[in-house]
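dumping this here before i forget
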Amino acid sequence: MAFRQTIAKEVACEGIALHAGTQVRMLLTPAPPGSGVVFIRQDLDGASVPARYDHVSETMLGTTLEFGRASVSVVEHLMAAVAGAGIDDLVIAVDGPEPPVLDGDALSFMELLDIAGVKASAAPRRALKVLRRVEVTHKDASAALVPSSSLQFAFEIDFASAAIGRQTFAFTFSPEDFRREIAPARTFGDIAQLEALKKMDRGHGASFLNTLAIDRDRVINADLMRFPNEFVRHKILDAVGDLALAGAPLVARFEGLRSGHALNNALLRGLFADPANFQWVTAAS
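structure:
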């Protein structure tokens, strides 16, 4: 994809918000070349929020973007789908605090983008090529970007629950492989923490249809699972969405060890903190 892309036509959907638990309508609209991905809060008089790493204000149980008086939460699944579809410029209008969670994956958003279609512009597409290792750590978790000739992901998780345990997965990014190997992986959570989350005003929209529910050492709704190692695949999905906030495709290898939204965002901030860490290249090269 040597040229910037947007969608060919408007497309809309409606569903429940994962944390707010309210019905949200979302409208995706084509955008001019170079405008990037922008969220619009229709319920806040059209206040806009650019989808950029430096506008991330919170990373608890999802990535929240904030700009001025407006914020949009849990953007990572949608941003992963946007990146997976190769979309550079897009307007995302929502009438609530989050996009709808749909199936708790990125595939449901990609299927929405399929309906809209893709339209290429005459503007060249640029990418960020990582030139030297950038790493961030917190306790026993880490995330790193390493020089590579292509975008690659390698992730390892280790949970006490036998339902998850230790899982590893790696893949080289391509639209086809992302759609097949990563996009279908659903979000997950510990059902024992659900009531505590609701007291924190989180998780009101979580259900056995959009979230893999862990109860000690078993998955309650295991019939929804699409992969034996779905949990680590979803962590890669989250990383794809979080790294999409760089504003351009990355040419690097991402290495995650128990990493989450906070480290993913810290990694991008570390990357951009020193111009010697990267260079801009044309996507065609």
